[in-house]
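Re: the pair you flagged

First of the two:
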Amino acid sequence: MTATETEIHGPVDFALLEFPRDRLTGEAAQALMDLVDAGTIRLYDLVVLAKDDDGGVEVLELTDPAGPAAGFSYFAGARSGLLGDDDVAEAAGAMDSGTVAALLIYENTWAAPFVAAARRSGGELIASARIPATDVIAAVNALDASA
């Protein structure tokens, strides 16, 4: 692999996923593990937060086997330095009281071969945006309704 190829990355995103405290099943953690194991994404950072009913926020230990973040224990130590204290505070501010949230930074590694091919052809990304899933579902439902 050449130095140029090692510098190719897929898009890097962040996500903040909020869960009602009484609905924690570990299913989302398993799905995340499957994506990482399949090489679909590379996880750079994972922080799990809990916000109590009074608005107090705690960063949860992923290694606590009885804790609400236990499902994410596989990712204990996933810290690249991309997430800072300000990011965690901003995430906590977006959370509802009585919830648990997973804050992730991940690379879409599936896209790296496409990025490399585009660069070899002189392509440069000049715009990018994420379309919310709710907008996609509404558009598909509208198409179905008109058919």
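Second of the two:
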Amino acid sequence: MLENKPKVKAEELKNVSGKQIGIMGGTFNPVHIAHLVAAEQVLTKLHLDEVWFIPDNIPPHKELALKTPAQDRANMLELATKDNPKFKVMLLELYRGGISYTIDTMRFLKKEAPENNYYLIMGSDQVNSFHTWKDADELARLATLVGIRRPGYPQEPHYPLIWVDAPDIRLSSTAIRQAIKTGTSVRYLVPDSVRKYIEEKGLYLD
């Protein structure tokens, strides 16, 4: 799917001008139900128009290089979100290449579609480390920060943000990859279309 998509053009962004847009970034390696549940909770509770899923090319805060091709991560996101018309997959960072800094994406979005209001969606661990992100001060000015509250998790934000409560699903892409590697079922942990894609492609077996 990635090779068949044109690069995002400024005209396409202007067509959605004036909307309330949630931004959810990450490796999505693979996308799982906790990602989707969090996005839906923010979408509905903050009355957003859309949530954009923007997969990293090279994540700045991950020590290990991604073994899963960008094509597969993008395809799984497309499969996971296709039934929700308010979820969009935006491949800005994959097309830009290099290390994926959120500040670069937000600068681009604010330049090309400045009338949109953007809401940067973060998990509790990201909230606690946000102050270490590249140009965090500017990023906090360009987007409204939104944190997914996790019960019992120490939350120490350094910037003002909106907290959104969501079902406490303790799930990570790392755990899913490990389960697949050891032959454990991930049914119901990822959308069924994603599970079938992983099986057909033989992903995460080594």
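The chain is about 40% helix and 15% strand.

-B.
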